[in-house]
Structure formats: structure tokens, C-alpha cells
Amino acid sequence: MAISVRNLSVDYSLPHGTAHALRDVSLEIQKGELLGLVGESGSGKSTVAFALMGLLANNAKVISGTAKIDGKSFDLTKPNATAALRGRGMAMIFQDPMLSLNPVFTVGTQLCEVLRRRSPGSDRKTRIGMAEDALDKVKLSNPQRRMGQYPHELSGGMRQRVVIAMALLSEPALLIADEPTTALDVTVEAQIMREIIGLRDRIGCAVLLITHSLGLVTEYCDKLSVLYAGERLESGTVNEVQQQPGHPYTRMLFDCEVQIDRERHADASENRFTVIAGELPDTRQRPPGCIFNGRCDVSFADCAVVDPGDYPVGNDTEHSARCLRLETP
Ligand SMILES: Nc1ncnc2c1ncn2[C@@H]1O[C@H](COP(=O)(O)OP(=O)(O)OP(=O)(O)O)[C@@H](O)[C@H]1O
């Protein structure tokens, strides 16, 4: 079973114009696969997730887009599409686990509620057993005690495990993890990523991992899509894209990552990270031609006027990038 999103475009209306935050973004994730969606801050990653989950802000409008899950298509411009999509099984892990947890209920009550909604006929004792089992599976120590605790009594990493346990119990077809480890320290990050992989292995769901970290993507994901100013500039398997980036932006992102890694090992201050010079363009006035033209180090005259297509890279049919340099005459 594959999950796909086709031509997702989202606008935000602002006091001075309309920001075209996403433009024709398409993604495809197979069952059991982890797709990393990377891009710098403001590139539109969360907008993709929110559009799928029906969590967009009031000033947002889905201009186009279809999501296909389990062979069934949903028109994302329709107001009730995301409710129907959620009904087919989607769960989301946020950077802040408190967005998924209710502070006034115990962990046990919240986990049992997921089970009650999923199988209303189940008895309480069975639900408690299953909830404890889920906490055990995400390696939360002393599950019985945790069941009676409130979210504020747990650390950030423990809360994130509870959210993963909730996802485990809801058995989604698609799990969206939006910067799930950004607020956690590096050791906890690795543990939480392992739990997400464990969840994927147990229920065979597709996972969309939203992150600004290429390091996380190369370590844990099967495929990646690179987002820039609301456009998907490149997509392919992690190995292919890493070995042969088709887009200059992807190459620059990988160069930054290597630099960050070196500086980490040299124990340098976090502030010295290399960044790509320039800024994201204002999406209220998308420039003509390639959206990355203003920051590209290998652009040529046509890049300022011709909107590039999505061209294949190398011999891999899954690998493509939006760069005119890949156009074959
Ligand atoms: N409610 C809103 N109204 C107006 N603009 C918005 C709104 N929400 C997001 N945006 C803008 O849309 C663009 C994409 O934002 P989004 O949060 O999806 O990016 P992101 O890649 O997830 O960023 P980050 O990594 O910082 O979370 C940004 O320019 C952002 O300022």
C-alpha cells in the first residue's frame, strides 16, 4: 500500500498579499518506508504535514492537491477531505509532545482512550493491558507506574515515547513525525528515532519524517525529498541522492552537513555552522525561472526566466530534480 500526495499547493493570506507557501508538491511513500522531507526553516515542511492532517491555520487555503491512501483518492481542497483521510489512519508526532497530550489526563487514560476509539467494544482491563504493553514496547520504564502519571511528571523524551505509544496503538497507515527530536538532546534523539523505526517495523506503516537535519535523514530514511520555498527540488532514494545530488541546493545542503559534522568533531561552537548564503525568496512574489536562482552557484542565463521541469537524475527512475542543467536537449 502506497501513500501519495499529488500537486499540493497552499496559500496563506497576509495583510499585504498572498504567500504561495507550497507549489505543486508531490510525495510518495510505500508501506514500511521512511521518507525524509528536508529543507531549511520556512521551506514549507510543516505546511505539508498540516495540510494532510487538517491542521492548517485559518488564513491558509489549499489551492490544489490530492492524497491517495489505500488506493482511495481525497481531494485536499475539499473541507472534509482531511477528516476522511484521518479516518483511513494517520497519526502525527510533533516537536512538542504536549501538542498531542492532554495535561489534565493521566498517560493511562489517554492511551486507553485511543484504544476505546479504535475498538469501542473492548473491555477496560484489556485496554489497560494493551496500553501498558505499548509503553513497554517504546521502552518506557515501569509502565504500570507511568499509566498513573500526568504528562508534566515526565521528561521531554518520556513524553515523546508516550506519543509514540499512542501512535502504536492507533496503528496508522501513515505516521507524520514533524521534527520529533529537535527539542531533545542527541542521545535521546537516537533513542526516539529508534522507537519510530520500531513502530514502523511493528505495524508496517509509512513514515514521513519532517526535519531540517540531513544527518537524521541519511541515517534513518529510505528516501528523501528536498523542499525549498515551497517547491520540491529533488527526490530519490537516500543513497542515490547522497551519491549524486541532482540539484545544486541539495549538494549545498550536503556540503553544510559535512561542515557541521567536522565542526562538531572539532568541538566548535554551534554558532559557527556553515550556512548557504542568501535567504529564501518572498513567496508573495515568486520570481520567474528557477526558485533557487538567486542563491545558486552554477546558474546560467536561462535559470532566471525558464521554470525548470522535474528531470530524471542518472539511471534511477525514482531520482529526479528541478534543475535546468539536467534538461536534455
Ligand atoms: N499561518 C500562517 N500565515 C502566514 N504565513 C505562514 C503561516 N504559517 C506558515 N507560514 C509561512 O509559510 C512558510 C512555510 O512555513 P512552514 O512552517 O511550513 O515551514 P517549515 O519548513 O516547516 O519551517 P520550520 O522548519 O521553521 O518549522 C513560511 O514562510 C512561513 O512563514
From TrEMBL:
One of its GO terms (molecular function) is ATP binding. PROSITE patterns: ABC_TRANSPORTER_1 (PS00211), ABC_TRANSPORTER_2 (PS50893). Keywords: ATP-binding, Cell membrane, Membrane, Nucleotide-binding, Transport. The keyword Cytoplasm does not apply. It is a peripheral membrane protein. Residues 5-254 form the ABC transporter domain. InterPro entries: AAA+_ATPase (IPR003593), ABC_Ni/Peptide_Import (IPR050388), ABC_transporter-like_ATP-bd (IPR003439), ABC_transporter-like_CS (IPR017871), Oligopep_ABC_C (IPR013563), P-loop_NTPase (IPR027417). It is found in: Cell inner membrane. Belongs to the ABC transporter superfamily. PANTHER family: DIPEPTIDE TRANSPORT ATP-BINDING PROTEIN DPPD, OLIGOPEPTIDE TRANSPORT ATP-BINDING PROTEIN APPD. This is ABC transporter ATP-binding protein. It comes from Aminobacter carboxidus.
